[in-house]
Design a protein that fits this description.
The protein has eleven helices and nine strands. The protein is α/β, with parallel strands linked by helices. The chain has a seven-stranded mixed β-sheet, sandwiched between helices. Strands 6-7 form a two-stranded antiparallel sheet. The longest helix is centred in the N-terminal third of the chain and has 27 residues.
Length: about 300
């Protein structure tokens, strides 16, 4: 379990002044009307396109690989919308970390809460699969109002950001676990906790299967989902969060429990998880994290990169 760090005078060192300046800006923006933040976020996304060409190219390439039937114009339109949503996601950090409960709860629209209750029946632990949508910070905060959970966590390299991030992400949930702490996750499940887990990024070659993701036949996909799901006290569900385009908030969905999972076939299970991610992405492809090099790891090291 990660303890919430306490404020230290060291955080006032001049090397953190630029960090504090950015944090102050984000904090002040968080108090603006929500719809205005959406407008500012879209503008920031347009700046991202000019300032981060490498990330833009990664997003474009991912979309070309996943949707080969799209025309160049369709790909470019989706890239532009995705970057605008990326800009909004920057301001959503302030929303998730600093908005008071009364303000953010007004943006919550819950669907399928009965599926979550069913998964927890009888003291069962729940492995809740989350995917890398751009509203992930808000998703974590909103879920805490439905039922507080625990989650895996990667510490920030910047000490000030680690302090703020840990406290912000713990606003409405229970506690966080180091992302490599497999034992800690299994203990949480054994105790009947809801444990959030993200299985949809490229984590390299260790504990993975190479299975299809959209039109890519060999996406490196973690088998961690199967590892945790094997616990005898575990049920598995998917939760996703979609930002409403009309500015009225966020739809948080809890889908029915996965049946016959794990199946005993790690490769088949990994492919099944990717299908779940695909189905979620198809609901709002412009809100998914396309700037990550999802296909950077090939089955063999001598194979040509998808990103050449």
């Amino acid at each position: 379990m990660i303890e919430k760090p306490k404020f230290q005078l060291y955080f006032l060192h001049p090397k953190f002044w630029l960090t504090w300046l950015g944090v102050l800006f984000l904090y002040l923006v968080s108090w603006l009307p929500y719809r205005l933040q959406l407008i500012l976020g879209k503008g920031l996304g347009r700046l991202f396109k000019k300032a981060m060409p490498r990330r833009v190219n990664i997003a474009r390439r991912n979309l070309q690989l996943c949707f080969p039937d799209y025309s160049d114009e369709q790909i470019e339109e989706l890239v532009n919308r995705n970057l605008q949503n990326t800009g909004i996601a920057y301001f959503e950090i302030g929303i998730a970390w600093w908005w008071p409960d009364w303000r953010i709860k007004r943006k919550l629209h819950v669907h399928g809460q009965e599926n979550l209750r069913q998964a927890q029946a009888g003291g069962k632990g729940v492995l809740m699969l989350l995917f890398h949508f751009l509203s992930l910070e808000v998703h974590a905060r909103l879920h805490g109002f439905v039922k507080p959970a625990v989650g895996l966590y990667r510490p920030h390299n910047n000490a000030v950001m680690e302090f703020l991030q840990t406290r912000g992400r713990g606003r409405s949930n229970k506690y966080m676990i180091q992302r490599r702490d497999v034992k800690g996750m299994l203990q949480a499940i054994a105790k009947g906790e809801i444990a959030g887990y993200l299985p949809d990024q490229d984590y390299g070659r260790r504990r993975v299967e190479f299975v299809p993701f959209f039109n890519v036949p060999d996406a490196s996909t973690t088998t961690g989902t199967t590892l945790f799901a094997k616990h005898p006290n575990c049920n598995v569900i998917v939760s996703r969060c979609v930002r409403r385009n009309d500015g009225t908030g966020y739809d948080v969905f809890y889908e029915p429990m996965l049946s016959d999972f794990p199946s005993g076939d790690d490769k088949a299970d990994a492919a099944r998880i990717n299908k779940l991610v695909e189905r979620a992405v198809e609901q709002a492809p412009e809100q998914y994290l396309w700037v990550h090099r999802r296909f950077k790891t090939r089955p063999r090291e001598d194979m040509q990169s998808y990103y050449n």
